Amino acid sequence: MRSPSFNLIFVAVLSLTLTSGGTAFHLASQPPLTEPQERVLNSAIALWTTGMTTIIGLLSNRSNDDDEHPEEDNQS
Questions:
Q1: What is the pLDDT of residues 58-75, one digit of tens each?
Q2: pLDDT at 28 over 70
Q3: Nearest to 50 by CA among 11, 20, 74
Q4: In Å, how far are 3, 27, 45, 65 from 22, measured between CA atoms?
Q5: 3-state DSSP call for residue 3?
Q6: How far apart, in Å, are the Cα atoms of 23 and each of 33, 41, 69?
């Protein structure tokens, strides 16, 4: 079972990632952007990329932890 702190971190990263991805998608579909809008777009893309990498890292790390401690699953 996942700890409450893991769930909190995962939800926070997921919400920031989805928000930045939505922002990037919205700005990318607009007509020619102004310079400030381009900076926001670049930041949103960078945050989305970082967020996706973090989500993959969190999930893969969590699955590795589950594999290393199979006896904890049998105690429930």
A1: 999 876 666 665 555 555
A2: yes
A3: 20
A4: 28, 9, 10, 31
A5: coil
A6: 13, 7, 40
Which amino acid does the sequence have at 12? A
DSSP strands (E only) in the chain: none
Q: By the 8 A CB rule, do 49 and 24 touch?
A: no
Given phi > 0 = left and psi -120 to 50 = alpha, else beta, which region is 10? Answer: alpha
- Helices 4-28, 35-68: axis angle to 10 degrees equals 150
- Listed residue (60, 55, 71) closest to 20, CA to CA: 55
Residue corresponding to tokens 């939505």: 22
